[in-house]
Model the fold of this input.
Amino acid sequence: MKLKKYLNLFILLAIFAIALSMVTVKAYAKEKTSSVKLLKGFNAIVEGSEFYYGSFYDAETDCYVDSINNKIYINVEDFFAALEGTIKEAKIKVKADKKYVEVTTGKEYYGDYTYDYYPKSIYGKPENMKLNIDGKAISVKGYVVLARGYDIVNDPYSRPHKILCLDFDELAKKLDLIHDKDISKRKFLLFTKLPENVTELKTDKKPIESYKVYNNTSIDIYDREFEFASPIDNYLYEEDGNLVRIENREKDENNKKSRVIIERYDKNGKKIFEKNFEYKEDRFGGFYRGEEYNYLFFGNYNDKKNDKKEVIRIIKYDRKFNELGKLSVKGACTLVPFGGGSLRCAEIGDTVLVHTARNNYNGHQTSLTIAFNEDTMLLLNADDLGAFQRNHVSGSFNQFVMADGNEFITVDHGDAYPRSILVSWLKTEAMEPEPGSPASGGGFYVTDRNLFSPSRKKGLLNIPGEIGFSVTGLSIGSAINLKNKVLVGINRIDYSKSEYLSADTRDIVLYSLDKNTLNVIEKKYTNYAKSKDITYSAPKMVKLDEARVMLIWNKINRISSKSVLQYLIVDENGKKLSEIKTVKGMIIADETPIIYNNKVVWSQYSGGRLVLNQIPLK
Done:
């Protein structure tokens, strides 16, 4: 009986132990389901530069995810790294033991550590973490996490150390940031709000789907300090009250095929039309919106100097970009179409003049001028596409063309023949055929058609240096034709202070050329000598009317590469009609600004989002 009593007691104890273990397992399971788990490789769609040029080059970071409550928790260091280079950039000091972060905005970001290994899960409820932002105390939910770095043996910073992982949405909201997340696709978005007079050009997609962080406008290297220009990739114009953008995207790691994108936006900045053209030619040359038709230009390399090979293709479209015709330019003594230069067009009547550049058969870089009839799409100067055209400039590092009555005005950045900024007027009427001599059988012949040869020309300055030395110390940003003057805006070094013309600092200079007397007025608006760490990009110009022009450029810190936008209004002689004004949050690159709704506007990719910069005209 005693044995049976003990046996029953043992059975009861066993049942109790099993029941207790089941309760314990259930409690543990419940705790596990409420844990916050680590998800690696979140794609960081962010405006800040640190994720692309700093320690997060692959634009990914790890986050803790609370799927039940739709929350992610991010290392506070990573969060502020994502704001580097933005108006919200801040210096932070993290005291994880005290659950405290000190934030000073307007200071250069500096993070103390980068961690490679996080615990797979964290448990418990999030706690209040204290932040002091420019003296203002706030709290954000988060966790203290024990993490370690990659080299725990040799690197003291790799040893276990506490970090703070904060609620992403809560922190972004309190900093007044644009934010979003998609846990299923492992990505988050973090952007600052746009500054005054900058609006977004929007698509139907959410920002987290439409922003492409690799799309980021940068100041053109030629406009800053390089010798050679390149084809323009971005164009903007108004049509029927809407804005139309043309953008070239060449094949690269982010774009599988080369294509030209045409987008139309309404007055509210909403995209209402898009069309894409894939192209297989080697190069994009440019776009021209004529009086009646649109044109796209493409080029092919010609290494074998084949006179029968198409080196430039010109495609004609209607306003809706339906193809209407094409023109093939073959040979043209061209190895590299558009080589070392740009492409711009103008038209008089049914004649379109294309002024661009090439590397010719002997390897020299020169200008290349092509003229065609827009109705027949036939060349008008097929007899003058050899090494030395009638308006030959060698080298010609940037090209501009404008209509002026019954003549075309071209502007070239020359380094040898001539070594100057050359303004030329090209004839559009050929000489009458002359009667032949009886000995030749009579009839008529043409000794020199003289079509598109210069009727007159003027060099704006003599560039110091050896003939053919490609370093000229200047870049042309724009050229405009007014009723009485031709204006050319450049940036330029101080030739008296640079022995080899290689100074990295340049000033803003405007040349005003009188079309009747050919007298030249030079005006300089900046003085980099006040700070040798400052330089200025070649200015773009917008004609406000026949008496006023706006110049727009970037003021660049050569040490930090940060920049601000500046603009100025002048008259036809370059006399200042306003003070130089400075605007933060904008840059100007290869796109030519236009006037739209009483504002000077141009587009820009800012950290992946497409925006419209605006300068109101009073």
Notes: The two ends are 109 Å apart (CA to CA). DSSP finds six helices and 43 strands in the chain. Confidence is low (pLDDT under 50) at residues 15-33, 50-58, 437-441.
